Amino acid sequence: MRNFFLLLFSASLCLNAQNGFNYPKTKKAVQTDDYFGTKIEDPYRWLEDDNSAETKVWVEEENKLTYSYLDKIPYRDKIKKRLTEIWNFSKATPPFKKGDRFFWYKNDGLQNQSVLYSQKDTCCDKGEILLDPNTLSTDGTVSLSGISISKNGQFLAYGISKAGSDWVEIHVMDISKKTDLPDVIKWVKFSGMAWKANGFYYSRYDEPKGGKTFTGKNEYHKVFFHVVGTTQDKDQLVYEDKDHPNFNFSADVSHDERFLILSTTESTSGNRLMVKDLSKGAGEFVVINETFQFDFDVIENVGSNLYVKTNFGAPKYKLIKIDINKPRGADWRDVIPESADLLESITFSNHKILGNYLRDVSSHLLLFGLDGKFEKEIPLPELCKLNELHAEKPLKFFTYSVVQFTSPAKNYYYDFATGLSTQIFKPQIDFKTDDYVTKQVFFNSKDGTKIPMFITHKKDLVLTGNTPCFVYGYGGFNISITPGFSSSMAFFLEAGGIYAVINMRGGGEYGEQWHKDGTKCSKQNVFDDFIYGCNWLVENKYTSHDKMAIHGRSNGGLLIGAVMTEQPEIAKVALPTVGVLDMLRFHKFTIGRAWSVDYGNSETKAEFECLIKYSPLHNIKKIKYPATMVLTGDHDDRVVPAHSFKFAATLQENAQGENPALIRIDVNAGHGAGKPTAKQIDEFGDMWAFVFYNLGMNY
What we know:
Strand content: 35-45%
Number of strands: 41
Shape: globular
Strand order of the largest sheet: 34-35-37-36-38-39-40-41
Low-confidence stretches: 1-18
CATH class of the domain at 2-84 and 431-695: Alpha Beta
Mean pLDDT: 93
Structural class: alpha+beta
CATH superfamily of the domain at 2-84 and 431-695: Alpha/Beta hydrolase fold, catalytic domain
């Protein structure tokens, strides 16, 4: 990067001397980019080089300052102790069946990674350990990143991720012997493992070059087929597109292993769909959909008929039937038409169809016949999330879990013979779940759109307008933020706080239009929704702006960065975490270009003019900001840490007043997936210590 610098100099960022912060010296460079005649300075671009010695020294100095600040908070260790106590309860996923075995994950409480268990024939009292990822590293930073079990239950393909990276290495186990085979597949990313007989399909990139493992663009995705017992160099190339380096490919196989299903994407929504009938040998793919305008997800097949969930002509999704011999749209038939509620997922079970719907951001489970005729609703609690559901077309049962803001996930077994659900797992937690309540409210955003918000607190809360409140949001990529339990949030609730979750536009809570209304040059709607939600909490005396902390991760980190730079008085504390904060250059790293459908792209004039208005990095001014702790991981190869590095350096240069502007950089950690329990407790403990201290809370 030095070749791009015209002038290097060091500048001591002791700009807030009045508040006692002596920020590390951060070198600046004259780096000017021209966007359609607008000159944009980028003096901290050198921090984009995560491998440079200078960046590593900067990270060490920033962490030294942050931890020296946190070390002085008197109740920090006490917070972590109580967090550990709440966290320490047994957790288990609902079991699923393959071949003659049941499989499930279990965590005894404080294990860094959950353990994969298996039990033959019956389900699921104790079982035996099949794969314990805690044995793969001494610090828990090697995690499982997806598993796939062959249809006959003989083989387990499992991916492992190191230090939270998106890069995955696939291994294969003989399940009956519980021994690993020699098979090792490297440089896999954004891939499933789809079995066909004694092999599986997967997707990968070429090996990164030039030290850009964690920052380089991910281009030329390819689909391969691996036969168990062979080396990776023998894998068959199944599909590639040399003319479109930014396309990503996902291969799946129908449950009867008759059809190979190939989905092509160029962004985070919309896909092309092709299908090959494997029973006919080396035939050609049949094209189902050629554009990226809509989503098509093959759920099941009955003979030559494919059952596909789609938002084609149905923004809240529907289920259609496509005869592979008549693949064009004129021959498609609706099985379950679009309804007023969002069809979140579809599963086949006992030769029937289960539809998982969101109604005002809460789950409802409906049962249909194969002809799409409604049969009944399977009861779920109020304001809940159907967290997991495991079923297969021929099985006469399915398992599922349900979670709420006030209670961790419980597992159930539904028996079609009785038509009843039986609870098969209930966690025992050191938290009085019955003492808390969740309510859902609706408020009007800036343009009058009705926005939902969940509010959780102690049942005996008195509205004084002075209660500490923690507000969370995401608002992007068609992702719905639904009810969920967090040991970390349970700690804050127990301490007397209020937890609020705002369901802004940009998410998927009400379908594709809701999503689109928070994208590209409509992205400001997302920030307005969040700001108006925070103001509603104050106006209705739940809290005050001086008692409010705001938090978001990834795209939610962008949300917090944008909100705090647009409305710095909105909250006392801001926690932008692993956020997309440089909206002009996000597309230049790893998989960032795929986000352009949601964000737009600075290489297009009209979209640049929208992005520059809210890009958090480019809207920092010399004013007072909330007490801010930016959080990121040094191995984050989803949203590269340069976003957080440059934002923190610029904030430290400009922030006025007494509030701290710190960055906590988790070493040997990524975007968040697979983060070991010990690191999570440490991160949340530091986060709560920072929040409590700056909100004036005692513990």
